[in-house]
Amino acid sequence: MASNAAVPFWRAAGMAYITYSNICANLVRNCLKEPYKTEALSREKVHFSISKWTDGKPEKPTIRSDSPEE
Amino acid sequence: MFLFLQSPLTRSHRTVRRGIVRRYEVDMVIVPATTGQMGVLPGHVATIAEFKPGVLSVHEGSETTKYFVSSGFVFIHANSFADIITVKAVPLDRINANLVQKRLVDFTQKLS
Description:
- The structure holds two protein chains of two kinds.
- Helix content of chain A is 39%, strand content 20%.
- Chain A is built from three helices and four strands.
- Chain A has helices spanning 9-12, 17-29, 34-43, and strands at 46-50, 53-54, 57-58, 62-66.
- A two-stranded antiparallel sheet of chain A has the order 1-4.
- Chain B contains one helix and ten strands.
- Chain B has one domain: ATP Synthase, domain 1.
- Mean pLDDT of chain B is 77; it is low at 6-20.
- The A-B interface holds A 20-22, 24-25, 27-34, 36-37, 39-40, 43-44 and B 9-10, 16, 18, 53, 68, 70-72, 87-88, 90, 93-96, 99-100, 103.
């Protein structure tokens, strides 16, 4: 069977729905009026440590601190 | 109809907290589906619709509350429950129109 019906534009752009949805949300967040904007942006900041596992052992973790950006 | 509004990352003017689930009984909701503005009344056929960014308006008696939703879905169930799922639903008066214009211009320029 051939591929499905027309691919949604975000899928065609190489992203998943969640990626698209988060980008939309960031755009909206950046357009808010003041107290709400800083609240929303600060709420979305994340800070985490991530490490790959090989052979059942974790490798050196990297720390990431992402704030919502465009 | 019951409107079950779930907004994973932010919610409306009443309280600002994550994961707020609000349940309202309303008369009608107009949602910005990708196929256009869709009015949802009690007794609507069960439907799933994806949103494009747009205005969601909730009608309760003679009052209308409008929110801008960034994207998301509405699941309308056969028992007149509608679940609206979005990452961001902001009341319209929280949006800064100047910022919107400015960013629209910026992005349009980037496109061309």
